[in-house]
Amino acid sequence: MPITHRNNVTVNGLGGTAMMFAHGFGCDRNMWRFIEPHFRNDFRTVLFDHVGAGMSDLKAYDTEKYSSLDGYAADIVEIGQELGIEKAVFVGHSVSAMIGALASIRAPGMFNKLVMIGPSPRYIDDGEYSGGFSAAQIEELLTSLDDNHMGWSAAMAPAIMGNPDRPELGEELTNSFCRTDPEIAKQFARVTFMSDNRADLSKVEAQTLILQCSNDIIAAEHVGEYVHNAIPGSQIRHLQASGHCPNLSAPEEVILAMRDFV
Amino acid sequence: MSEGKHAEDLEDLFEHAPCGYLSMRPDGRIAKVNTTLCDWLGKSPEAIVGKRLRDLLNVAGSIFYETHFAPMLRMQGFFQEVALDMVRADGGLVPVLANAAERRDGSGDLLFTRLTVFKATERRQYERDLVEARAAEREARRQLEDIVSSLQAGMAEQVAIVMEEKRNSELKEQFVAVLGHDLRNPLAAIDAGASKMLRDQAWTDSTPVILRLMKNSVSRMSALIDNVLDLARSRLGGGIVLNLVDRPLQPTLELVIAEIQTAHPSRVISTRFEIARPVRLDHDRIAQLLSNLLGNAVTHGAQDKEIRVECTVDSAGNLALSVANAGDPIPQEMIPLLFQPFHRGQVRSNAYGLGLGLYIASEIAHAHGGRIDVESEQSETRFIFHLPAQ
Questions:
Q1: CB of B96 within 8 A of CB of B84?
Q2: CB B59 to CB A173 under 8 A?
Q3: Does the CB of A214 have a partner CB in chain B at under 8 Å?
Q4: How far off is chain A from B74, nearest CA to CA, in Å?
Q5: I want to staple B62 with a disulfide (CB 3.0 to 4.6 A). Which of A226, B54, B71, B143 is the partner?
Q6: What are the structural domains, with CATH classification, of chain A?
Q7: Which of B383, B385, B379, B384 is nearest to B305 (CA)?
Q8: Does the ipTM exceed 0.95?
């Protein structure tokens, strides 16, 4: 099965350099709808869904492969190879910031620049390190995913799967936006919130920009600073935008910061 | 307000509606909250206004809200029936279902996000029970499938064992019947010879012939009994015990060939020996092995074609002893069964015994650390005993 089908890859834009956008846990590539079109004039933009999310091929979901972020990083490298991407820009939101870091380490030369939006190398506190959550809180999160299970299981699949050419905000997507198979969502949540990539940060050679939101409970400011200090030569930019999804809540600010960097 | 306090008071509706109301400014801070929700949470409006929604949620819920419902709200302008747990002043949880909608102005700028919450303790508990029941059902189904498949496998195995036992016991009954029959024939021949000589009362021209026939019958009975005893020995444990000696091999082989030749004077048996060095063997057993292979060739080979016995021992001490005969080739699918005592489909009686010969020969080969190979083609069938240098 082609990788582009597996990961629901779309390429747009007029530029020579590629810019790949990777969504985080909880959503899909629609996350970038306010950002990606602004870069089409200068870049070849690449949008995709992680396997298990959005319009990716759910049949390609392999519990073993996706039991760590490496499986997702391997997919990104495969997409990059398929599209012949070199010296590109990788834009990763949330957990995909770390997935992008792993991919850049795996495939030197594929990504020259990383934009990390709300990155966290580890969500659970560990001794001196403060990730923002206790192990018990994360466990509670993983358990509580079931609470929104009822709606998820019935409504989700037919609406999304039945319409390959889904209009961007069509009626049929009502309340099903960013939904996927609950079992996959649970496993992705576990992999995301149990991950620990602190040791990988020093291996990142790509030029890195960290976009840090204010009042982001998922990736707090001191976590952003930790990433900044750990990645050699990285820059950090503090956004006015609050919350975890500035790409949705404050796209202009994100675009401006990205433009300055790329 | 001419209708006075009978008219619905919108302010009162907002404050005391049977659901919680909450409005957030574009920066996510709470601008307004109604009394119903304050009461449910045990908090004053002052303690809530200015906070963010996530400050009212437990940690898991706030992560979920940030990763799922905030994006959904921004993308489609609303969400519905989201399950959240709000935290009371005393730390307890209020399970709710929430709907939210954005309110935008004419130019599309966000004015407020409005949230209504419905207490759903019972419903949420029921849904959780359903989820757990579903998980339990899935687990039970999985266990049931495991049980069914292991039962199926177990039954198939049991059936195979029973069938095998049945077949073996049938074969054993046949075997005993054939053994009795086969022993009776040479015994009858000896009896007849002895009677004839008793009648003759003297040495006549036919006496040597009769004696040779009687001796052949004795040899045949003796071979049958040896094979049966070996079968019992190899089956009842211990296997075949060897008495290994260094002695020239050729005389042992020639003796066996002479015996068979005597019993079957019409058959042509050619030999070729190239024995470079002595090999440590149990000579009686090797004699039995060759005797069985030769007996097999005499029985199954073409009557008018020669039987070729070859024995080579190279300078390293590798031994190859082969018996070849012309005749119909052995069907390929039969070859693996040739060396099994009870698995030949049926026990056949033939001129040279019970069909145990090849089994015993291969047991002898194994006991020595060697093996017997079969090559069966249109031109000839050849059994080869290979014994690698020790």
A1: yes
A2: no
A3: no
A4: 7
A5: B54
A6: 3-122+197-261 (3.40.50.1820)
A7: B379
A8: no
What are the tokens at A224?
């952003």
Q: Is A40 on the interface with B (CB under 8 A)?
A: no
pLDDT at A149: 53
Per domain, the residue ranges of chain B are 4-119, 138-227, 245-387
Fold entry, domain B138-227: Helix Hairpins (1.10.287)
| Chain B residues with CB-CB distance to A177 below 8 A | 71-72, 75-76
The catalytic site residues of A sit at: 94, 216, 244
Res A121 pLDDT > 90: yes
| Average confidence (pLDDT) over A139-156 | 61
Q: Smallest Cβ distance to A30: which of B58, B75, B127?
A: B75
User: What's the rounded Cα separation, in Å, for the pair A177 and A173?
Assistant: 6
Q: Do B28 and A243 touch (CB under 8 A)?
A: yes
CB count in 10 Å sphere of residue B371 = 14
Q: Which residues of B touch A145 (CB under 8 A)?
A: 64
Structure-block tokens of residue B99: 């709907």
Splitting chain B (390 residues) into consecutive groups of 10 residues, what average pLDDT does each group show?
Answer: 61 92 91 95 94 89 83 82 89 90 86 92 82 85 91 88 80 72 78 87 86 83 80 68 87 87 85 91 89 86 92 93 91 79 49 65 89 91 92
- Check whether A40 has a pLDDT greater than 60: yes
Listed in sequence order, the residues at least 6 apart from B185 whose beta carbon sits closer than 8 Å to its beta carbon are none
| Pairwise CA distance, residues B70 & B279, whole Å | 88
* Nearest CA distance, B54 vs chain A (angstrom): 9
Query: Which pLDDT tens digit goes with each residue over A153-211?
Result: 433 333 333 333 434 444 444 445 566 677 788 888 889 999 999 999 999 999 999 99
**Between B54, B68, B83, which is nearest A217 by CB?**
B54
- Architecture category of domain B245-387 in CATH: 2-Layer Sandwich (3.30)
The Cα B41–Cα B84 span in angstroms is: 13
- Contact list, B67 vs chain A (CB under 8 Å): 24-27, 94, 218, 244
- Which of B24, B27, B58, B63 should we substitute to test contact with A (largest number of A Cβ atoms within 10 Å)? B63
Task: Give A-chain residues touching B131 at CB under 8 angstroms.
Answer: 146-147, 149-150
Element (H, E) at A18: strand A18-22
